[in-house]
Amino acid sequence: MKQDGLQRLLDFLNLLREHGVEFLLGQEGPDGIMVQFALYGVRVEVDFTIDEMQFSIFKGDESVLTNADDLVRLITERSK
Fold first, then answer.
1. Among 12, 59, 66, 68, which one is most buried in terms of CB atoms within 10 A?
2. What gap in Å lies between CA 20 and CA 50, rounded to an integer?
3. How many domains is the chain partitioned into structurally?
């Protein structure tokens, strides 16, 4: 029997809690719930719908930058 989408989400949230991982819940579209969390060196977004789960992993060096021009350029180049 296929596992219910809500049960899949609840099981996943319990797994995160068991491992002490803090997370945020959000809704990007009308038919799903997104779970966002970070682990050392990665940020993860997991989308749950009734039928499936999909995830994306964003890797980076997590550097702290201070040049405001770099921030403005990043926003300008990567928005819209």
1. 12
2. 26
3. 1
Residue 3 CA to residue 47 CA, distance in Å, equals: 16
CA neighbor of 73 nearest in space, from 1, 55, 65: 65
Task: Specify the 3-state DSSP secondary structure of 37.
Answer: strand
Start-to-end Cα distance in the chain: 42
d(CA 45, CA 55): 6
Question: Domain residues for 58?
Answer: 5-78
The DSSP code for 50 is S
Class of residue 69 by CB neighbours under 10 A (exposed 0-12, middle 13-18, buried 19+): exposed
Is pTM beyond 0.85? Reply is no
